[in-house]
Amino acid sequence: MLDYNAPLMTDMYEYTMLDATLQDGTANRDCVFEVFTRHLPQNRRYGVLAGTGRLLEALKDFHFAEDDLRFLADRHIVNKSTIDYLERFEFTGTIRGYREGEVYFPDSPVLQVEGKFGECTLLETLILSILNYDSAVAAAASRMTSAAKGRPCMDMGGRRTNEWAAVAAARASIVGGFRGTANLLAAKLYDLLAIGTAAHAFTLVHDSERAAFESQIAALGRNTTLLVDTYDIEQAVKLAVEVAGPELGGVRIDSGDLASLAQRVRNQLDALGATNTKITVTNDLDEYAIASLQTAPVDSYGVGTQLVTGSGSPTCSMVYKLVERTGDDGRMQPVAKKSKDKATVPGRKLAYRSYEYSLAECEHVVSGPVAELDCFEPGDGWRNLLVDFVDHGQIDDAYTGHDAIMDAQKHHAEALAELPITAQSLMKGDPVIPTQMVTLPW
Predict the structure, then answer these.
(1) CA 20 to 30 Å from 74, out of 11, 27, 217, 258?
(2) Is it the case that residue 440 has pLDDT exceeding 80?
(3) Whole-angstrom distance, CA of residue 80 vs CA of residue 72
């Protein structure tokens, strides 16, 4: 995918821990790590998991180049025996978790990584950086598309974030329900719909607005979208229809009172015979602004800053915690933190969602030893939320690429439709369904 070294997209202490555990022998202990969040971002009723496909792509490239190993050695981050270990490194563990596009809640075990401590610990920062950001963008996209009530939302946020984050955000926005992106690299990598026509600079570089419109239509055809708020909107709309005719594809408004302007522009277009011309609005939109435009004659939304920053919640506060490992006797043992406000639930987890009258009512998270979990009988109609992504190092390619993104978008829409309608409220509130933790005896 992008040109970077996945093994170095991490924190130094992952390598110093590896170095020490290789020396004392604990690097080879079988372990289970889990990813979850203790709480949803403020004002959110649900989360949306995104980034799993990107993580699997990165895992395929998780191999050390010579210059990576030279860097680690020259900086004395690890010793020679650890360099030898990394030289032949390959992830051989198993990864399962929630499907991409699935909704989640506090304590949902959205990802479970099982393998040797040495290989699992190296993945921590990579996993968290991908899932925390992509899930934040997908959740924002989900809230925006819910507020849009079926009107298309498009990603225009590339210029408002890091250039690599822009690609991740474009992908995550599709998982959350967006229809297309202005980012061409994302469109190329993931076969997404690319959108965009012209900025205000295009109008300004021409001697007149008419000349700009004539140039754009000559190049892109009458079905293009003309930007009409560089000077005077009313005059621009009149001119746009004069130049393109009533077959004009669309107009875009990027400033002012969008609801009022959209109404006036719609009436003007209809009066000019351009009844099929669409109206797109942009200009620092978020879910609240989109909701306020529900009664306005708007056909689509272009969203930038608020999308790529998670609409005020740029991370999901996901953590990666060791919950189980082998002891000196070779048997798996549950482990947990007891830190104040950061305590964790020991043991690997199962996860289900129960329903009443076809609506989700509870998230059920069950922990315990493998033997007990294998015998656990879920309630009638409970949906198992965990799927396998990697089986002893073998990556399931069904969860990567364009089709996987579109499947995730479809799955998200289905999962969201199963939640109580209050999930789509933009008001402050608790998670829309509770999470029930059950610990089976060890």
Answers:
(1) 27
(2) yes
(3) 10
**Paired sense of beta strands 383-384 and 300-303, if any:** unpaired
Q: How many CB atoms lie within 10 A of CB 109?
A: 24
CA torsion, ordered 104, 30, 20, 9, to nearest 10 deg: -40
Where do the domains of the chain lie? 6-137+313-439, 197-298
- pTM listed for this prediction: 0.96
- The Cα–Cα gap between 184 and 276 comes to 28
pLDDT on residue 1: 46
Sheet holding 332-334, edge to edge: 332-334, 318-326, 30-37, 111-116, 94-98, 386-391, 394-395
Instruction: Identify the residue whose tokens are 């306020």.
Output: 292
Instruction: For residue 209, give the H/E element and its range.
Output: helix 209-220
Residue 167 burial (CB count, 10 A):
24
Bridge partners of 354? 362
pLDDT digits (tens, 9 = 90+) for 232-252: 999 999 999 999 999 999 999
Q: CA dist 78 to 10, 115, 425, Å?
A: 14, 21, 50
**What tens digit of pLDDT does each residue of 282-322 get?**
999 999 999 999 999 999 999 999 999 999 999 999 999 99
Residue with tokens 């999308």: 307
CATH of domain 197-298: 3.20.20.70
Neighbours of 391 (CB within 10 A): 12
Is residue 268 a contact partner of residue 242, using CB atoms and an 8 Å limit? no
The Cβ of residue 360 has, within 10 Å, a number of other Cβ atoms equal to 22
Tokens matching residue 42:
């403020």
Q: Which residues pair with 30 in a beta bridge?
A: 116
Q: Please, is 342 exposed, middle or buried when counting C-beta atoms within 10 Å of its C-beta (0-12, 13-18, 19+)?
A: exposed
Per the CB < 8 A criterion, the answer to whether 204 and 180 are in contact is no
Give the Cα separation of 234 and 240 in Å (integer). Answer: 10
Q: How far apart are the first and last CA of the chain?
A: 43
Q: What is the pLDDT of residues 248-267, one digit of tens each?
A: 999 999 999 999 999 999 99
DSSP type of residue 193: P
Which residue type sits at 269? L
In the sheet that holds 278-281, the strands lie side by side as: 180-181, 153-155, 300-303, 278-281, 250-253, 225-227
DSSP state of 400: S
CATH 3.20.140.10, domain 6-137+313-439, yes or no: yes
pLDDT at res. 3: 60
